[in-house]
C-alpha cells in the first residue's frame, strides 16, 4: 500500500478519499468524482511504474513484484429510488 500512497501523493491525488475494497492480493478503488482524471491516468501511473521499478531493482534473483492496473471512467448516476449496489470484482489470473 505504501507504493500506492506514494504514487497518489506524487500525482496530487487524495488517497484517503478513495473508497476501496480489498480481496486477496487485489484492490478495487473508486476515486472521488472530483479527482483529476489526467492525474490518475498520467501522473499516478508514471509514479506507480517508477516506484515498482525502484522496488524490483533490489530484488536480485527473487521474483519481481508485478502489478496489473485497469482504469474505468464513468460518472455515477443517482436516482431517488436507487441505492448503492455491490460490484463483483474478479482479479485477473495468469493462465
Question: What would your notes on this structure say?
Answer:
The protein is an alpha+beta fold and 95 residues long. The chain has a domain at 2-57. Strands 1-2 form a two-stranded antiparallel ribbon. Helix 1 crosses helix 2 (37-57). The chain has helices at residues 2-11, 37-57; strands at 19-23, 26-30.
How far from one another are the termini?
26 Å
> What's the shape?
elongated
Topology order in helix (H) and strand (E) letters: HEEH
Proportion of beta-strand residues = 5-15%
Strand order of the largest sheet: 1-2
Number of separate strands = 2
Q: Write down the overall mean pLDDT.
A: 81
Unreliable stretches covering 5 or more consecutive residues: 87-95
Q: Tally the helices.
A: 2
Secondary structure category: alpha+beta
Q: Return Rg in Å.
A: 16 Å
Helical percent range?
Answer: 25-40%
- How would a textbook summarize the main sheet? 2 strands, antiparallel
Organism: Streptomyces sp. R28
Protein name: GGDEF domain-containing protein
SSE layout and pairings?
Layout: H1 2-11, E1 19-23, E2 26-30, H2 37-57
Antiparallel strand pairs: 1-2
Helix pairs in contact: 1-2
Structure summarized in a few sentences:
With 95 residues, this protein is of the alpha+beta class. Helix content is 33%, strand content 11%. It comes from Streptomyces sp. R28.
Top keywords for this entry?
95 residues; alpha+beta; two-stranded antiparallel sheet; 2 helices; 2 strands; 33% helix; 11% strand; disordered C terminus
Amino acid at each position: 500500500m505504501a507504493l500506492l500512497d506514494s504514487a497518489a501523493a506524487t500525482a496530487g491525488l487524495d488517497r484517503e478519499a478513495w473508497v476501496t475494497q480489498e480481496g486477496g492480493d487485489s484492490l478495487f478503488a473508486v476515486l472521488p468524482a472530483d479527482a483529476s482524471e489526467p492525474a490518475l491516468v498520467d501522473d499516478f501511473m508514471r509514479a506507480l511504474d517508477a516506484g515498482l521499478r525502484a522496488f524490483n531493482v533490489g530484488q536480485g534473483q527473487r521474483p519481481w513484484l508485478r502489478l496489473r492496473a485497469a482504469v474505468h471512467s464513468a460518472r455515477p448516476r443517482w436516482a431517488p429510488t436507487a441505492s448503492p449496489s455491490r460490484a463483483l470484482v474478479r482479479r485477473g489470473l495468469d493462465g
